[in-house]
Every structure is written in C-alpha cells, then in structure tokens.
Amino acid sequence: MYRLQKIEKVYxxxxxxxxxxxxxxxxxxxxxxxxxxxxxxxxxxxxxxGRQDVIYSEYENSFSAGQVWWxxxxxxxxxxxxxxxxxMLVITIAxxxxxxxDPFQEIDWLxxxxxxxxxxxxxVSRELRLKVLLLARAIIKLERNKPYGWRTLQWFRIHxxxxxxxxxxxxxxxxxxxxxxxxxxxxxxxxxQAVKSSPLKSISLDDAAQECSMGRSHFCYIFxxxxxVSFSNFALxxxxxxxxxxxxxxxxSIKEVAQKHGFKDVSxxxxxxKKYFKCTPNEYISKLK
Length: 289
Fold this sequence. Notes:
Number of helices: 10
CATH architecture of the largest domain: Sandwich
Distance between the termini: 17 Å
Number of domains: 2
CATH superfamily of the largest domain: Regulatory protein AraC
C-alpha cells in the first residue's frame, strides 16, 4: 500500500541542445525498500545486470538483464533492487524532441512510453535481450570516450533500441496508425508544455484546447489518442504529484497544500491523493517521519 509514497518530483532541464540525459547506476547490494520519482520527461530504463522490481500505480513487474521498462510523463513509479551487483542505464528524453528529425518521423517513437504499463514492449528472448545489452553498452562507451560526433551517435543508438522494442508490438500497429499517432502527439504538445510550465495552476480543458487551436471535443479525442489518457487525468496527475512533493517538504499544512495546488477543498484533495498514492495525505506524511 505504501510503496508509492516516497515519490520525488524531478526536473531534468532538457532542451533542444540537450534533449537526452544518461545515468549509469550501479548498486552492489539488493535493497528491501522501493524508491521512485515522477517527472515530465520520458524514461527508458535498460537493465544491464541483476534484477529490479518495478511498480506503477496499478501494475508491477520484475526486470532482469537485457530488459527494458518505460515511464510516461507524470507517471509515478518506483523500483527496488532485487539482487546483488545490479546496474542499469537510465535514458531520459524530452518528449517534444523524440523522433524530432524528419527522417525519424515514420516511426511511432512515443508508443512504448504511453501504452498501459502491462502492454509496454519488453524483450523476453535471449537474442533480443543480448541486442539491447550490446546497444546499451555502446551508448555507455560513447559517453565515456566521447569520440567525434558521440552525442549524435548516442541519439541514433537510443532510437535503434526503440525501433527494436516497437517490433514487439508491430502486430498492433499499422503505418497509417503510426503516422496518425505522431501527428496527434505534435498537435497536443502545446497543452503538454502548458502543464509543464504552470505546475501550480489548474489548466482547464478549454484553455488546453485553445493552446492547441482546437475545439473542446476534438481536442479531447486527439489528446486521448496521443497520450493514452484524457487531458484532465494527465493534468490532475501532474498537480497531485507536485502536491505530494510539497507534503514531503512539510512546510505547509495539508489544507494549505490543497489550496495552493488548485483543489477546491480538502475533501477533494484527499480523494484524489488516495486514488493515486493508495494512502491518505496523513498516512503519507506519517511514513515520512
């Protein structure tokens, strides 16, 4: 019940000049507790050695060497190292720059990140897991040695991994569907960025639709097709996650946090908080002490 409580909000400060960030993590011993975060940017996590247990709000799984797990914007997630000598490569990507170059746009880069967690591609065969490991190690080697053009080469390798993973879900996709989904994503990007740039403001559906120069009903349809969730749920997820971080800081009362983050009353805040974190704000604070 409490495994998603200690979720920290993280800003990666990515932009067009640095649209990707790499973190190579090594932990020599397994851990008994989960730790996690939430952020606007996309992440793909490649397990290099050992095993990791991962949980989302309503899904959990265990991943081992050569496997991949993914996070969508503002999606709470947590992991626990389940073996000794564990290592992983965390690739963080600004969603607005994924598949940014024209030749890249025939691929539905966003799909692995925004499918429901249980449907996201994850290599099972030994052959595919080995390919993922080789690509991950090539990315790390480029980071370490920094040869001429190393950032561009990394960007290619990252997209190559996504292509490999997309091949696992190709039976569910068509060329027309791929092109349509990428078109949808580009159309709703102004609304996604509005949520990112106004973390304490409750952005209305009408305001979001206006940001994208669409009517309300058309925007609702396009956003759901692009992101896999409604805009209202997406924006609410972002606000409740930021509010949880404010509770962690313990500088304000629960009522003050609710008001500051745009909830109409404390009762509504409690209801939404429990839905996403599986506990009340009081229980959340209590576990932090």
